[in-house]
Hints:
Blueprint: H1 3-14, E1 18-22, H2 37-51, E2 57-60, H3 62-66, H4 70-82, E3 88-95, H5 99-112, E4 117-120, H6 126-133, E5 139-145, H7 159-170, E6 176-180, H8 185-195, E7 200-202, H9 212-219, E8 227-231, H10 233-236, H11 244-264
Parallel strand pairs: 1-2, 1-8, 2-3, 3-4, 4-5, 5-6, 6-7, 7-8
Helix pairs in contact: 2-4, 2-11, 5-6, 7-8, 8-9
Amino acid sequence: MIFFEKLGYHVFSKKTFLCVGLDPVIDKMPQHLPRTHQGLLEFLLNIVEQTKDYAAAYKPNFAYFEALGISGLDILRELIKEITPEVSIIGDAKRCDVGHSAQMYAKAVFENLECDAVTLSPYLGQDSLKPFFEYTDRGVFILCLTSNQGANDFQLPDLYLNVAKKAQEWNVSGNVGLVVGATFPKKIKAIRKITGQMPFLIPGVGTQGGDLEKTLVYANNESNLPYLINASRSIIYASSKEDYAQQAGIAAKQLRDRINSHRSNL
Length: 266
């Protein structure tokens, strides 16, 4: 089963388009948890346990684990191993390098860490992405229009449209999607026109303040998997007290329900 078939099954069976981003910072954990790497793993696994019924995917951000050194990568590996197979894992790595280095990055993400999908930067061109495409059972989300305001420096006014066009050309195995930010909802309409039914991974609806309703309207298509809506900090830091995991579950459910409510009106 290729990645988007697997992901589509999770979306359909759970009736959720939510992806929970895992961006852990030890200093932001509730005070009762030990400020250790084991405490961080406990923090994350408890959140996963409380949110798994509402999430179709989890997106661990590699930077937060790599910043902790070798033990951080051990935490990342253990986290991925422990997450239920009924949820997809998107490695938020944003890799980009020349072909021979990209082969090693692809092997690290897909074989060593066993992620189901990965985020990639496209700006070195097709040869930097091809090693990832060749894992045809895995997914690739190419950065097209990111949610940060600095996207204006290069991605706008039209570079993001060129990325969308190229991604559509490269999607010969049906395993390519795009990252598009909810902070630029009207731009999503133009991207959707180019890409047809390609799935979108959409950050920016939580702490960054993207417009959920407009984003769903512009990103929608007639497929069963038009998008995943990602939220990270607004879920995993929903509480700084001992009820942090339960509050994360409540926040995940509320966002899942908001997405479904808006979809029913489309």
